[in-house]
Amino acid sequence: MRDLSFMLAGVGGQGIILAGDVLAEVGLRAGRDVKKSEVHGMAQRGGGVTSQVRWGRHVYSPLAEPGRIDILIGFEVLEALRNVHYLRSGGQAVVNRYHLPPPAVAAGEAAYPDDTDVEREFAARGATLRWMCPPPGIERLAAGVQLLGLVSAIEPLRGALPAEAWLDALYRLVPPVHQELNRRAFQRGRTAAANGTPGRGAV
Questions:
Q1: Number of structural domains, the chain?
Q2: pLDDT tens across 37-95, in order?
Q3: pTM (2 d.p.)
Q4: Pairing of strands 48-56, 128-132
Q5: Any domain includes 149
């Protein structure tokens, strides 16, 4: 498996830290050197949060420079767009089609980007963008795990690690009472990757 750098971007309360921990655990179980970093927004819920996870034979820094991220995992549309410059040309992006307008948008002082604007920016980076539909009801609590399921089943990770390796890492980090919810979410993501195609359609 080649060296990989991931960025997770969203807002507080979306499970970004947990998803980053799962990615780090999966990398360790695959025998890779792993480094992880986190940047929290000002608010516990609603502030921007990013996490970088890097796998490699030897990883010397937890932070990748702009233009060096292989896979961007967007938990919220605007936060994904704000971090698109970290993606390398030819990189992959998986974005939850969830919109949380910031106060400036709510006050009418700024416009929230529409999907076409987002797609244009990712295309300009030479990146492949896949949308994910937000899961319904209580399943939304595991949207981050659904994103991981999707990531696990697309290039360059497709076939590199069995689903069980991801689930074992997940189960190590979530309480038993939540494991079935997260298992279903992970499987939905993998199924979506198998059935969907990059571009405008959400999976």
A1: 1
A2: 988 765 455 678 999 999 989 998 999 999 999 999 999 999 999 999 999 999 999 99
A3: 0.91
A4: unpaired
A5: yes
